[in-house]
Amino acid sequence: MISIKSKDEIEYMRKAGYLVSLTHKYLKPFIKPGITTRELDKLAEDFIRKNGGIPTCKGYEGFPTALCTSVNDEVVHGIPSNRKLKNGDIITIDMVIGYQGYQGDAAWTYSVGSVSDRKKYLMKHTEEALYEGIKQVRPGNRIGDISNAIEVYAKRHNLGIVRELIGHGIGTEMHEDPEVPNYGKPHMGPKLKEGMVICIEPMLNSGSRYVYQLDDGWTIKTSDGSPSAHYEHTVLVTSDGYEILTPRLDDEDV
């Protein structure tokens, strides 16, 4: 069932989302060659708890850490470890933070040092695909309008669209209805209504769309070893459009 959030619930979600944004901004200066993904995870968890949040991913269905850290050909759900980041890597940091029982969720892909033009292209156009989807958020439109906008943009830029992993509703739970695929037909699917909150999150590969899961039961990688990028925002449907609850804070002070 798709829930419509009250004004009070939206305010809690706004605060949860803002803490997600603050944590991303806090981590960004640490994303350099030589740091381990486990060190990034520790920094994030300490910051989240210090600021009154709960790292929702930690313990979710047995997931062991606060962050998902997915490097290069890892699409999603990479588990932080002693792996050191290297110059030329890209890393997706995906986090869900609970605040007063409500969730915020965002994933952004970062460059580590100097990255190849291929990776720059992938990152640029995966993020643009996200915003193409967000532009379709307004009352009366349908989930399929978001999905189709992402698909059309990704195909125009020759990127593989991962189909096995999709966006979702969010509220008191990390994953709620409706499902939000990154491909589909316009004017199809559930209708968007004021007060709905959804996570839109294209996961695009520079090569084939096909993926597989590692034996750890979590990490998803591209089948052909091509790099993958992932950008996600938590988005509120407003009376006349949308509000991004996980804004980028790159130009603001923490």
Q: What Rg, in angstroms, do the CA atoms define?
A: 17 Å
Strands side by side in the biggest sheet: 8-7-9-14-15
Q: Beta-sheet strand percentage?
A: 25-35%
Question: Given the structure, what is the number of helices?
Answer: 4
Structural class: alpha+beta
Straight-line N-to-C gap: 36 Å
Number of DSSP-assigned strands: 15
The amount of helix comes to 25-40%
Overall mean pLDDT stands at 97
Low-pLDDT runs of 5+ residues are none
**Major sheet characteristics:** 5 strands, antiparallel
| Succession of helices and strands | HHEEEEEHHEEEEEEEEEE
What would you say this structure looks like, in words?
This protein has 254 residues and is of the alpha+beta class. The protein is 26% helix and 25% strand. It is built from 4 helices and 15 strands. The mean pLDDT is 97.
What's this, in brief?
With 254 residues, the protein is an alpha+beta fold. It has helices spanning 7-27, 37-50, 117-134, 143-156, and strands spanning 54-55, 67-71, 74-76, 90-99, 102-111, 160-161, 167-169, 176-180, 197-200, 203-205, 211-213, 220-222, 228-230, 233-237, 242-244.
